[in-house]
């Protein structure tokens, strides 16, 4: 059996089935979750949901068996998106477990865990202890299968309509102009939640939104394309469908539907930073209308400079954070931020227990577009102000030595340097074209990730090529947007 440390990652569990994540391992993780998190937190029950992968029902049932063996009750939600699981955790005030491997290929599965009210769990906040106890239990079958505290109960709950109703209460789409939207669910959980939230599948009234479905059939083998819209190759079908149908926009969800990507009527992708800025402006005004005075928005260090500019233009405070949901959520909780966004199309809302939901972000885009008469490209142009390289990955042998050479490069030019997350270098001349770049080391691979942004394409390309020359030193590298 593979060591659990091989696939219990910094923020979740993500492994091959059944070589790494088997029903026995899932049961052990359920026992450990109950003993490390649920019972010490004074909770008597949890919620469990799963995606459409073939292995998800069996793995989630095994996890539930482990939890109930420790006297903890379980509400089984069945098929659900990750953000619906977060809704259940928040609305019921219970810890949760979501069985999904998000955008990973079909041979993978995983678990996203949270405390009550959708509070995140990572290596530093309980996941390492869950992993270690589960590993010990797997070496001690007597302990793994021993029942303590009396058997917990299992009930089946369907919260899809409640989830859809809650999201509609946060963004009112009833008064917008009629819109046509193509939605690519990539055979993932968006095919389950979009008809409920934007349609009438959950028994809610019809909205002035016509949804043209693309790959809504739930199929964890992903027969059409990978459920990873961060890869431009997986947006091709959506872009073609938007132009073919003359739609107002397109939406692409990943496998567990917690991330949402947007394309305009011409099929051009709208950057996640632009969506972050657009939604931030709306959430700031919403909070101000509710009486908030000190309003903050969190963004990660590689979001476009336009995000902070838009936040300040709306008389709110931008807050920079490290890349990663645990850092964004922690910073939002610390500052009471109304909203948070990442370049990877994760969008976090204070009114959604500081958790991420691609569906709610999509509803904001629909509302913003439907409340005015222009096309999305025109609306987005106000938030896409600079030229960006996208994320460029380079395989390296000595990341520390490269970082030192980049610091020296910046020092010679008098550029500003900060190290909140990797190395961020900013142009020194306020009278010249603006540019900045960030270089971060991967947590799991020998890669350096470079992001460059500048006032214009020429400046961006010049800085990109010069920095890549220092990073690669003539070695091969790979361009990626993930």
TrEMBL record:
Family annotation (Pfam families): PGM_PMM_I, PGM_PMM_II, PGM_PMM_III, PGM_PMM_IV
Segments forming domain Alpha-D-phosphohexomutase C-terminal: 391-468
InterPro entries the UniProt entry points to: A-D-PHexomutase_a/b/a-I, A-D-PHexomutase_a/b/a-I/II/III, A-D-PHexomutase_a/b/a-II, A-D-PHexomutase_a/b/a-III, A-D-PHexomutase_C, A-D-PHexomutase_C_sf, Alpha-D-phosphohexomutase_SF
Annotated GO biological process: carbohydrate metabolic process
Swiss-Prot/TrEMBL cofactor(s): Mg(2+)
Domain Alpha-D-phosphohexomutase alpha/beta/alpha: 9-125, 162-267, 277-386
Alphabetic keyword roster: Isomerase, Magnesium, Metal-binding, Phosphoprotein
The organism's place on the tree of life at top rank: Bacteria
PANTHER family in the record: PHOSPHOMANNOMUTASE (PTHR43771)
Family label: Belongs to the phosphohexose mutase family.
NCBIfam families (alphabetical): PRK09542.1
Name used for this protein in its record: Phosphomannomutase
Organism (species): Intrasporangium chromatireducens Q5-1
Recorded name of the encoding gene: manB
